[in-house]
Amino acid sequence: MNPPRPRPRLDQENSAFWTGGAQGHLNIAKCGDCGQYTHPPRIICRHCQSENIASDSVAGTGVIDTFTINHQPWAKGLEVPFVIARVALDGVPGVYLTTNIVNCPVDAVAFGDAVKVVFEEQDGVFYPLFEKVA
Amino acid sequence: MASKEAYITGIGQSEVGVRLPRHPLLLTLDAAKEAIAEAGLTFDQIDGVFSFPGKSHGYLAFSPVGTDEIIEALGIKSKWHMGGMEQPAQLSAIGMASWAVKQGICRHVLCFRTVYEAGGIADPAQYMPARSETVSGASQWTSPFWATSAACWTAQYAARHVHQYGLTREQLGQIAINGSKNAMLNPRARAITREELTLDKYLDARMISTPLCLYDCDRFSDASTVVIVSAGDALDEIRCEPIRIAAMSGSVDRYSWDQVEWPAAYDAGRDLWTRTDYTPADVDTVQFYDGFAFLPITWLEGLGFCEKGEGGRFIEGGTRIARDGQLPLNTAGGQLGAGRLHGFGFAHEAVTQLRGRAGERQIPGDPRVAVATSGGGPLAAALLLTKD
């Protein structure tokens, strides 16, 4: 049994990201003026400084940009090994998510694998994890 | 009066150990006394104190001593002081000190970095972070996925190098092996490295986060390192050979570990050479931050000692980076071999080599130009140090 995941402190900027999974949505902040995405989420667009920015429900698919197989139990009881990956999101240029690849053996993960989001809930926070697209 | 140039003059270092009983303030005093004595100064002549990252109140083991405390404890009459983490990286505290003397605000600045990350574990109530219910800031984007250590973040970059450019474990292992060879000749590294690391032992080591194994991660230590930065027009007060801070850089395009393809070492590395007539071909030795073994590869490539992606082949077999090689690297052992001094050890060793005072580990010839760097991910600071 794994220990609980570290829990992000919810605030005005990050709540849409961490709770969007309740509706099955992967939310990324998008500018209503220039149309570009800002991640980590902010209340201003990092490309054009517009305040007209809101969370956008994106496709929730992507490809593995890079990954590491983690063998070190960083917390008591943490089951290893597991995969920590950086996923490049489809349709969201320039945005990557650090995440875990789940529901497959660690040696089944490869660069460029197509993946899709699966949410893991813990006390109202929806952690966006990814699994390989079959 | 403003001075055109800034120099590193006195350098000092405390004992380096694991779970040293000596209080970190006293370790800082040990290093400061050695540096002051070498420079031929007294504490009365120190008029500035700079550090990175400042006293870390929530996690004292990481940084147990503040600049304000040093002013008080050592009786320094300071004209400017600064300790903070919001700067390019560890060595940028020395960079800031060079600005203070060039502006004419200070004449002799004491710069220090004290760590108590091994000793602190033995006294968690005093030195370790309080348990937190939540994560916030940058760590909220990594810790929830158990990417809680910079080892995992660095491993992501290293793994792509393996995939894209064919970096091998045999190549990567040369950083730790070279560090251990040099550490064996460094009297201050005795508590950290007791025997030379072999390639077989390296390849057998347990993995931390692929491709980084145990020997690719530096080891918590207790130590203080001091560097004194003096104004060019104050050198008549100095007894040791001054080493010029010829250029520095601390560029970063995005402050993130995971939203960029290349860590800031590439930005800072590129920009260092825009501020000097020296080129990579002039460099006699490099002291590159190796909190994780992959980081020196980013500095080799970022500073243009080889092409992007060629770092693994550059260090292959270890001969090029050995003490008698074309580009001696981490001649005191680096942090992998000589302990996690957290950045300042690289400036200390660069100055030691340029002065020809490295004893058994002294590189051949008459080294005149060195590069010292610190940082990984979005942290990056480089100093070009010259004897000219």
Q: Which two chains have the most extensive interface, and how many residues on each?
A: A-B, 35 and 37 residues
Q: Radius of gyration of chain A in whole Å, from Cα?
A: 15 Å
Number of strands of chain B: 12
Number of helices in the DSSP assignment of chain A: 1
Helices and strands of chain B, in N-to-C order? Answer: EHEHEHEHEHHHEEEEHEHHHHEE
Q: What percent of residues of chain B adopt helix (DSSP H or I)?
A: 25-40%
Structural class of chain A: mainly beta
On the 0 to 100 scale, the average pLDDT of chain B is: 97
| Overall pLDDT confidence of chain A | 97
How much strand of chain B? 15-25%
Sheet with the most strands, sense and barrel status of chain B: 9 strands, mixed
Q: Per the principal axes of the C-alpha atoms, what is the gross shape of chain B?
A: globular
Poorly predicted runs of chain A: none
The end-to-end span of chain B amounts to 23 Å
At CATH level 3, the topology of one domain in chain B is: Peroxisomal Thiolase, Chain A, domain 1
Helix count of chain B?
12
* Count of domain modules of chain A: 1
Which segments of chain B are poorly predicted (pLDDT under 50) over 5 or more consecutive residues? none
CATH superfamily of one domain in chain B: Thiolase/Chalcone synthase
- Which strand order spans the largest sheet of chain A, edge to edge or round the barrel? 5-6-7-9-8
The first-level CATH class name of one domain in chain B = Alpha Beta
Concise structural overview:
The complex is a heterodimer of chains A (134) and B (388). By secondary structure, chain A is mostly beta strands. Chain A is 4% helix and 43% strand.
Tell me what you see in this structure.
The complex is a heterodimer of chains A (134) and B (388). Chain A starts with 6 loop residues before the first strand and ends with a strand. Chain A is built from one helix and nine strands. The longest helix of chain A is centred in the N-terminal third of the chain and has 5 residues, at 15-19. Chain A has 134 residues and is mainly beta. The mean pLDDT of chain A is 97. In chain A, strand 8 (114-122) and strand 9 (125-132) form a beta hairpin. Chain A has one domain (15-132). Chain A has a five-stranded mixed beta barrel. In chain A, strands 3-2-4 form a three-stranded antiparallel sheet. Helices cover 4% and strands 43% of the residues of chain A. Chain B has 388 residues and is α/β, with parallel strands linked by helices. Chain B has a domain at 6-125 and 220-237: Thiolase/Chalcone synthase (Peroxisomal Thiolase, Chain A, domain 1). Chain B has twelve helices and twelve strands. Chain B has a nine-stranded mixed sheet, sandwiched between helices. In chain B, helix 8 (265-272) runs parallel beside helix 9. Chain B starts with 5 loop residues before the first strand and ends with a strand. The relative contact order of chain B is 0.19. The model of chain B has no long low-confidence stretch (mean pLDDT 97). Chain A binds chain B through residues 5-9, 11, 14, 39-40, 65-72, 74-75, 78, 81-82, 84, 86, 94-100, 111, 125, 127, 129, and chain B through 133-136, 138-149, 151-153, 155-160, 163, 206-212, 256-259.
